Amino acid sequence: MTVKHSKIEILRTSLTLGLTSFGGPVAHLGYFKSEYIDKRKWLDEKTYADIIALCQFLPGPASSQVGIAIGMLRGGLLGGVMSWLGFTLPSVIVLVLFAFFYQSLKLSDATWISSLKIVAVAVVAHAVLGLGKKLTPDKPRIAIALAAALIMLLFPSTFVQIIIILLGAGLGYLLFKNKAQTKLASFAVPISKKQGMLAFSILVAILIGLPILARVFPHMYIQIADTFFRVGSFVFGGGHVVLPMLEQEIVPTGFLTSDEFLAGYGVAQAVPGPLFTFSSYVGTMMNGIIGAVIATGAIFLPSFLLIVGALPFLSELRERSSFQGMLTGVNASVVGLLLAAFYDPVFTSSILDGADFGLAVILFALLHFWKVPAWLIVIIGVIAGEIIHLFV
Fold first, then answer.
1. Could you give the CA distance from residue 258 to residue 265 in angstroms, rounded to a whole number?
2. Could you tell me which residues come within 8 angstroms of residue 132 by beta carbon, excluding any fewer than 6 positions away?
3. Using the 8-state DSSP alphabet, how is residue 270 labeled?
4. Between the CA of residue 134 and those of 137, 214, 331, what are the distances in Å?
5. What is the spatial distance between Cα 36 and Cα 67, in angstroms, rounded to a whole number?
6. DSSP letters of 24-49?
7. pTM above the 0.85 mark?
8. How many CB atoms lie within 10 A of CB 4?
9. CA nearest 245: which of 272, 275, 219?
10. How many Å apart are CA 250 and CA 284, to the nearest integer?
11. How many Å apart are CA 377 and CA 126, to the nearest integer?
């Protein structure tokens, strides 16, 4: 197969996944395994597991980063772009259209918008429990999570979130560096260490340069790029954790109201593909199509740079117990940040009476115990909200 055909194949395959991969990051990894490993045999299961491990260590959307990495292994840097584009584009289109629909029809008081906010309560509660079970299995990590949640609730700001993540890394180093896994297998990747260092250098340069540029030239486009690039660079724990960081950047500054923010988050649960495409909705609400393009590109760009930067060093980093310990602490602090976000803004902005709480509990039960997929939870939540509205 020629390189050209390989790129087309990557785009076509990832587009199929982007149209059908409902259920969140864990489900995405299952879809990837079925398509890339079992069906197409683009790589073996061991390599796939190593890529997943790498992406769990990095900030950003883990499932998207896995897809990008597979695309790079298949077709180089352009292959990674094709893989991301196909997987991401369907949900971007849906969320941009919803933003225009919301704005043109002034839906802030619609019953089904309130129902979407209640859906967000159930989904975030499920995410907190799921991440908590995986990332805080013992008392020290539970303590880190609880401390992170308390600090965030007392001093809510993006700067405090970054401090919490850094403190979590420090505590992880002190507490868990001697409990790291050993005998982790290595594998070769088609990216040089020089390319990796260049990618990291670009990431740091943009992180430093964009805030300065936004201050010197306070244009809306630069502000959007600065906000979403920074969020994409510091979101540990996957798509759900983008909620608290974006909320702190967008709602207090008046770009979106809390209702507008949570309505889009609710719709994001109903579409396939990565939850980070929620940025497309926010960008559209802020500044139309151009805002959507800038926001989407800015929030995903760190994922590309981090994958290119980290792949050549994966084997060496995973062998270091100090690195594993730091990430253990970071992951625990992420659970605390998500717990704080569950209370404010998700719960406080969505649950207004007993009926709202009852519906949220039912939706959570369907999601958590009956394993109903998230997209179906959205439909059930909207229909049930309309029915309740008729009788209450």
1. 11
2. 142, 145, 335, 339
3. T
4. 6, 38, 9
5. 9
6. -HHHHHHHHIIIIIIIS-SS-HHHHH
7. no
8. 9
9. 275
10. 13
11. 12
Q: What type of residue is 286?
A: M
**Exposure of 268 in the CB half-sphere (CA atoms within 13 A):** 29
Q: What 3-state class would DSSP assign to 108? A: coil
Angle at alpha carbon of residue 210, lines to 70 and 226, rounded to 5°:
70
* Amino acid letter for position 12: R
Q: Give Cα 279 to chain centroid, integer Å.
A: 10
Q: Are 272 and 150 in contact (CB under 8 A)?
A: no
pLDDT in tens, the chain (392 residues): 445 558 899 999 999 999 888 667 766 887 888 889 888 888 887 778 778 767 877 888 888 999 999 998 888 889 999 999 999 999 999 999 999 988 787 655 567 778 877 887 887 788 788 878 878 999 999 999 999 999 999 998 767 877 898 899 899 999 988 876 655 555 567 788 899 999 999 999 999 999 999 999 989 999 999 999 998 988 765 666 777 778 888 888 888 888 888 888 878 877 888 889 999 999 999 999 999 999 999 999 999 999 999 888 876 776 788 887 887 888 888 889 889 888 887 788 789 999 999 999 999 999 889 988 777 887 898 899 999 988 87
**What count of other Cβ atoms lies within 10 Å of the Cβ of residue 217?**
10
**63 exposed, middle or buried (CB, 10 Å; 0-12, 13-18, 19+)?**
buried
If you compute the radius of gyration of the chain from its CA atoms, what whole number of angstroms results? 20
Please, which residues have CB within 8 angstroms of residue 222's CB and are 6 or more apart in sequence?
210, 213, 214
Residue of 16, 31, 135 whose CA lies nearest to 373: 31
- Strand ranges for 7-133 from DSSP E: none
Which one, of 240, 278, 48, lies nearest residue 132 by Cα? 240
Tokens of 312: 């050549």
Q: Quick check: 103 and 285 in contact, CB under 8 A?
A: yes
**Looking at residue 23, what is its pLDDT?**
61
Cα end-to-end distance, the chain, whole Å: 62
